[in-house]
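Board notes (copied after class):
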Amino acid sequence: MRQTLRKAGGSLVMTIPKSFVEQNKLSEGSQVELVLSGKKLLIEVAQKPKYRLADLLAEMPEELPKVEGWDTLPDVGEEKN
């Protein structure tokens, strides 16, 4: 498949085929990985990070800041519904 590069600001851009976009459920703002290998450029769909609760908890600070009065704040949305 041949693409024509176009100028956009100080960069060159090209389009991604619709079939690739649909196959990989991509949309505006989706992230992809670009892998350079000599004169080749490979585009891969970026994998979403997988988090484990134990790892996230390990990154928490020992002492969390305490917020006084949080439980007496007025409702701001549909908390009671």
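Comment from the instructor: The first strand starts at residue 6 and ends at 8. The chain is about 15% helix and 20% strand.
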